[in-house]
Amino acid sequence: MNWIKRIFKTIAVIILSCIFFLMLIYRSDIPIDEIEKKYQTPQSHFVEVDGINVHVRFMGEGVPIVLLHGSFASLHTWEAWQEDLSPYFMTISLDFPGHGLTGPDPEKRYSIRDYSQLVIRLMEKLNLEKYHLAGNSMGGAVALQIASTRPDRVISLNLIDASGAPTIPVRELPDSTVKSNSNGGALIFRVARNPIFSKLLLKCTPKFLFAMNMKQVYGDESKINELTLDRYYELMLREGNRKATLDRLTGPRDSDVDFSRLTMPTLILWGEKDSWIPVRQGYVLEKAIAGSNLIIFPGAGHVPMEEIPTESVAEYLSFLGVEIRKDYLEAPNFVTYAD
Q: What class is the 32-320 domain?
């Protein structure tokens, strides 16, 4: 009978340990007022679009550039780019529903097509008929959908480690891209889609999961700082965002891109060490979009605009016609695709 008691004691210890662990990682939602106070900036505005108060950040003047972030991110991912682009363009970044300060959509419109319609409607509300589009990861897929749906509105397209590439047999790709890259998948996506763990994530969201996620996203882990990690983590805890994330990941993707309609100038930027969407997908997009140009950043990961903002924005500015000055006393040479 002693062995039965030992088994029960062991089980009890395991159960109590699990309860204690869950108590340690339990995190309540951060109230809207508190999170907005911390992460709003003087350039922040809330624009109502189809019943959603979209958090938008405007910087600069001139021809508009719309910046679209990826899954689990926010408009803050573009901070460095907005600083460098705003002397020449009007830059517009936004938090998609279920992300950042925008928060959840009561109607759960989280598909790629939903997000693309939201951006189109936002631009109409701002009376902006034509604009450049730049999108990272999921934001790249949204940019592709917008450009396919309304090519008459999109001046140029910039895809940064973008999802949404068409399916092409691997044998048609350069051998080097197949050998040097493999998509191990993102841990946070697998956890969020698991029917058991996803329920726990609604209340028990460990910060170490986001730290592991950041290490996957960056090519150079030394460039990850605590403030960036805190921002990703706390914005996920914004009231309603965790539930919205689970709804989004378990809902339909709903995307239908006609690549033959993408005739606008297109630049594709990719981090060589992207483990979420490997660089071979960049080659697929380059092949699918006539006249596009692919640039690969050695050593960079999934978010070059965060990890190597200076190098990546310089390539984008050059694509847009802004010559980076060697002599800062001279005015920049400036040409735009707006004509």
A: alpha beta
